[in-house]
Amino acid sequence: MNAYIEKVLNEVRVKNANEPEFVQTVEEVLTSLSPVIDAHPEYEDNALLERMVIPERIIEFRVPWEDDNGKIHVNTGYRVQFNGAIGPYKGGLRFSPEVNLSVVKFLGFEQTFKDSLTTLPMGGAKGGCDFDPNGKSDREVMRFCQAFMTELYRHIGPDVDVPAGDLGVGAREVGYLYGQYRKIVGGFKNGVLTGKGRSFGGSLIRPEATGYGSVYYVEAVMKHENDTLAGKTVALAGFGNVAWGAARKLAELGAKAVTLSGPDGYIYDPDGIVTDEKISYMLEMRASGRNKVQDYADKFSVQFYPGEKPWGQKVDIIMPCATQNDIDLEQAKKIVSNGVKYYIEVANMPTTNEALKFLMEQPGMVVAPSKAVNAGGVLVSGLEMSQNSERLSWTAEEVDSKLHQIMIEIHDGSADAAKRYGLGYNLVAGANIVGFQKVADAMMAQGIAW
Ligand code: 2IT
Question: Which of 81, 128, 383, 439 is deepest in the core (most CB within 10 A)?
């Protein structure tokens, strides 16, 4: 590995010793940049990597709110504005008890390169709170969102930072957050958040975008491999918005998702999650707030595997759509022993670095990285920003066709970059290189301002 990368990585490991997720993602990105850093000695002279691994700004704040029984709770909110070199900060908000500074920093770092990959001018940010929306009443969620925005509003804006949803933050939460923002600031402000409802500036296809985009990416992989999606079986993890969009698009293209997972275990449906009834039921399960995938097994009389992950099932394609570190080395070995050819990350950092390395070493296996595969979500958020600033609303076909076209560009651009640096069909390195290069060019052009 390049000595400059090695040096920066060692500094990151020491300085962020209490932030394992953040260190993991920095290691994953930087280790694939060796050929680029070799070719650009001026980066070291400008301390480019040292600057890139520190967020431009971290905001941490107190969020007090009152539950339905009049009891006061206090949570910790975050917004990490990681890198604004190529555009306004952009990235989601995650509400989950697992949220902490390490998680938000890892997501913000990833988001910087993902947003760069979309080809649109968006910097990277992420935020969230250690609040658990599961089991809360609608009014409690509303009061919490209002309390959260009462601090966040002063740090965001259409030219500054444009948040959206992520785990635990869907259309309902975005609506409450936007309502409070508008009340405090008193203007449309180009919608400020993306993923808004249709009636107040939301874009068509935004709910479907991450899942659809991931399947468009898989189509591009299939084309490269002279293969086809039709007839393929797919193991999905998760059962939220992303898995829903993926299941729908897979069904439309003649493939079938056969597993879903939740915190309680996973379900296996050999007939596939392909009918409208089954796909719509995923939305019901999410809206119920029960957070149990067993409900699907009960409703459609299929097998439920409590406490297990779906990676032992023999399928053609694996698409983890849940959360980080869903697949460790042991799971990866199961996947390889089942002869799976396509390992397509969808959730942010679903694979431990050890497992990712192992999978990438397997001859003939195609591994695709989440920062490229799931970029369709933030990409359509970027299209929502364009529509809001122009006071226009594009048709579903217009948005979908832009999404489709850019997902193919992301795949092809990554494949080309890896090839150019002599790395073969390495989509992981290719995505890191393309995402990095644009941010690096912008930072170099702007001088040592940040
Ligand atoms: O991980 C992601 O890219 C998102 N949660 C979506 C971010 C966005 O701004 O739409």
Answer: 128
Widest CA span in the chain: 63
Residues with CB under 6 A from ligand 1: 90-92, 114, 164, 166, 194, 348, 377-378, 381
* H-type alpha helices, 154-308: 171-185, 206-224, 241-252, 276-288, 294-300
- Which CATH number fits the domain 208-364, given the four candidates 3.10.129.10, 3.40.50.720, 3.40.50.1980, 3.40.50.2020? 3.40.50.720
Best residue for ligand 1 mutational test, from 90, 378, 399, 406 (most atoms within 8 Å of Cβ) = 378
- Which residues are annotated as catalytic? 126
Alpha-carbon 125 to chain mean position: 12
Specify the residue with its C-alpha closest to ligand 1, atom 3: 378
CATH of 3-188, one of 3.40.50.10860, 3.90.580.10, 1.20.1260.10, 3.40.50.150: 3.40.50.10860
Distances (CA, A) of 28 to 349, 353, 357, 444: 10, 7, 9, 23
Map out the domains of the chain as residue ranges.
3-188, 208-364
Provide the token pair at 447. Answer: 């001088």
User: Mean pLDDT across the chain, nearest whole number?
Assistant: 97
Characterize the bridge pairing of strands 72-83 and 57-66: antiparallel
H-only helix segments in 225-352: 241-252, 276-288, 294-300, 329-337
Report the alpha-carbon distance of residue 177 to residue 172 in Å, rounded.
9
pTM, full prediction: 0.97
56 half-sphere exposure, CB direction, 13 A CA radius: 21
Three-state DSSP class for 129?
Answer: strand
Q: Do 349 and 24 form a contact (C-beta atoms < 8 A)?
A: yes
Asked if domains 3-188 and 208-364 share a fold, the reply is: yes
Nearest atom of ligand 1 to the alpha carbon of 115: 3
Residues 233-291 pLDDT 10s? 999 999 999 999 999 999 999 999 999 999 999 999 999 999 999 999 999 999 998 99
Residue 426: the pLDDT is 98
Cβ proximity of 267 and 304 under 8 Å: yes
What separation in Å is there between the alpha carbon of 376 and the centre of ligand 1? 9
Ligand 1 atom having least distance to the Cα of 111: 3
